[in-house]
Design goal:
single chain
Length: about 190
């Protein structure tokens, strides 16, 4: 019983020292709960996180927990564990978010080449690949040829100099076409 009371007193001392800015106290407090950190690291897997990232986050959360811990409102160990677990769950949620699903399903170029897939070349992009949905396709259908070329210039698919040389037009004409394109886009999309 005496050892348990001594541990609690030592923990309270370390927390107070962390609140007063003592860096060594933070290290000791972190080392004290390192098995807890390891259990959470082993429980949650993140694709882009290595052990150093986890430990850095755990140290930072240990610091935040010690600063915000109110003595007498439960045990520090429970408080730290809850904050660390919540942080891990937030990171997992972030990684699994719908808009980031493509990243988790992607493969490296080396792996693609090894399995016989060819990477896309930038110059292989065609105007038919530009529309992202039906509304954009409808807008593009209503563009003049010059406005269509202006769109390709704006998107960086065709160099401006190439359009000017091939059509033998002045730069002013292309600028006006870009302006009409912007107006049509604003009108249809907004």
């Amino acid at each position: 019983m005496q050892k348990f009371t001594d541990n609690l007193a030592e923990e309270a001392t370390l927390i107070n020292q962390v609140k007063n800015g003592k860096e060594d106290a933070l290290k000791k407090l972190y080392i004290r709960y390192h098995p807890l950190v390891n259990s959470i690291i082993n429980k949650y897997y993140l694709r882009c996180y290595d052990k150093q990232d986890w430990e850095q986050d755990a140290l930072f959360i240990c610091y935040q927990s010690a600063i915000s811990y109110v003595d007498g409102k439960g045990k520090f160990a429970s408080y730290y564990k809850t904050r660390l677990t919540n942080h891990a769950k937030t990171l997992v949620r972030y990684e699994n978010a719908y808009r980031r699903r493509a990243l988790t399903q992607s493969i490296s170029i080396e792996k693609a080449v090894a399995s016989g897939l060819r990477p896309l070349q930038v110059n292989q992009v065609s105007p038919s690949e530009v529309p992202l949905n039906d509304q954009l396709a409808e807008i593009i259908d209503h563009l003049s040829d010059l406005e269509g070329l202006a769109l390709l210039v704006v998107l960086g698919i065709v160099p401006q100099e190439e359009v000017l040389a091939n059509l033998k037009i002045e730069k002013k004409s292309l600028i006006r076409a870009k302006s009409r394109l912007a107006q049509k886009m604003r009108y249809h999309l907004l």
